Amino acid sequence: MQLDPKFFLPQPTPAALIAQFRSSPARQAVTAYLRKAVPSLDIAETSIPQTSYSLYRQFSRSGERDGYENPYFEKRAMLTRAVVELILGDESRTDLVQDLLWSICEETSWVLPAHEDRGPGFEDPDKPGVWQGGTNTTLTREPDFIDLFAAETGASLAETLYFLEDRLAPEVVQRVRDEVERRIFQPYLAYGRKFWWHRGDLNWNAVCNGAVGLAFMRLERDPHRLAEAMTIILDGLNAYVETGFEADGGSLEGIGYWNYGLLYYVTLAELLNERTGREIDLLAAPRLREIAHYPLAIALAPGKYFNFADAADEDMLQPGIIQHLAQRTGVDDLAGLIIPYDTKVWRGFFASKLAIVLRDLAWWDGEIHPFPAAAREDAYLPACALIKLNGRTPQGQPVILAAKAGTNSGHHYHLDIGHFILGVDGENLLCDPGRGLYSQSYFREGRFENIFANSFGHSVPRIGGHLQMPGPKFGQGSLEHGQIVSQGQSGSKKSVVMDIQAVYGLPRLSLARRKLELDEHTGEVSLEDSFEFTGSPLEIEEAFVTWCPVAVDGPAAWITGQSSELCLTILEPGNAAFVANLLTDECRANQREQTLTRLSTRLPLDAQRFILRITVHSIPKI
């Protein structure tokens, strides 16, 4: 549907919002965070980070991303802090804001090198374009693509002009307008529907369409052009809500990308709601309520989530966006997942998102609410094939068992079908190790040579020497599914049964089934893996991964955390024994500070069943 240019109300002046920012109950928390995340502004002679040609080409030469991306994001984080402080009354920041705006406008490209050559006609988001050299490159031709961070840059510059235009030099304002026009508006109007992400089922859709939409809403003066752009944007965002989440509202990209995609979706949705006189209210859709429930289903403790794929087990949801989404959808418990800014999981990367930090000032009450009871309940997401079961030790320590089935494909996926984590008192003693180092090879066919992405680094069996099989994305295998066959409760025992046979791609393997059971009164867990073969059996290696210290003694192993210890005992087969291997080199190669331990046991060739008992023991406080 083509929007009518008359649909949009005039842009309101920023005075009311500026007053709201200055009196925000979140002001102290936001400014303290920015000072911590962007300390370079406190230096007497502040220097603006430079993004050179050689740094840009580092990715194509070596696959490394940080050399270019670190100064790129630091510069935008500096802009965020300087703009916020100027809005809040620090007039000394004016020249710095102008210098940062000018420096960003001087950049040859706003598209990251990891995302170049993915413009019109590019179809596969999981096979990045390869720089071929020559003269017709992202750095020489007129902009014809918008990636996540070009879109975010356009949004940040548009917000800066909206709130501060009257305090900036006219030539700086005009330069910013010209660059947003050239790098964002013209490419989007020309190619928007042809960009691979436009109607994609992933966070790129919402971030790019949402941030581009925000820039148009702030800067576009022609109502016909605005209507044209917003028609394209809404087409994309509608597809995001329809296809970017599973039928149960969950995201197979994990909590971090759930949060990231919604940052700009919610921001633009509310601005669109205001500018259309409540005629277009994206947040009123019932689907948004289902989506808002998802973090509660996978939350384990404050700031900790059931992580899978490229998600981290510790993450922070953006306070302003989350509180606003909770209010608009009626999922009030969602606000209880907000954690303080000054936590180790709050990365400075998010300081580069000016529009989102401003929503923290506008929408967050600055309060940290109690962790919600709804997040402590059992949860089952059938479309995502995720389950979370809760119990307690006799001493009252909360125990959480979470498991997944799912497919061997998707955005950011890992080969982790049948994998599970076991957490006690907020600490994952059996863990998911999270993502590998983002590099060129990690998003190509070499992805599953990385133990953080393949099944070697997860708590799943290796069968006949084979790991789980990559699917069509990042691999050459067929799309296969693991299934949650059943789940339920009998007495104090909560259980889930998963069929994981298909993802091994082994013709002789006719059955591979895992049953996990949690006693809600003791926290004890039992695991039973069953295998059947056509013809001669294949060797089975069971494995479990942890960041915690491990000790082994034959069929028993102990995993020691901060407040509790797991005792793993092999009950069947009777002659199996554990071996613990430190994955030191793999962790260093992926820039992980901790060292992952892989606890494994090889079963006798005639064994077709493996039974493990896991008991929880509290560690006395000294």
Word description of this protein:
The protein is α+β, with helices and mostly antiparallel strands. The protein folds into 2 domains: 21-374, Chondroitin AC/alginate lyase (Glycosyltransferase), CATH 1.50.10; 385-618, Beta-galactosidase, Chain A, domain 5 (Distorted Sandwich). The protein is built from 15 helices and 20 strands. It has helices spanning 15-22, 27-37, 53-56, 58-62, 66-87, 94-106, 148-164, 170-191, 203-219, 223-243, 255-275, 286-298, 319-329, 354-363, 584-589; strands spanning 299-301, 304-305, 379-381, 386-392, 398-404, 406-407, 420-424, 427-430, 462-463, 481-490, 493-499, 509-519, 525-533, 540-546, 550-553, 556-560, 564-572, 579-582, 597-602, 609-618. The strands form 4 sheets. A 9-stranded antiparallel beta sheet has the order 6-10-11-12-13-20-17-16-15, with no helix packed on it. A 5-stranded antiparallel beta sheet has the order 3-4-5-7-8, with no helix packed on it. Strands 9-14-19-18 form a 4-stranded antiparallel beta sheet, with no helix packed on it. Strand 4 and strand 5 form a beta hairpin. Helix 5 runs antiparallel to helix 6 (94-106), helix 5 runs parallel beside helix 7 (148-164) and helix 7 packs parallel to helix 9. The chain starts with 14 loop residues before the first helix and ends with a strand.
Q: Briefly, what is this?
A:
The chain has 622 residues and is α+β, with helices and mostly antiparallel strands.
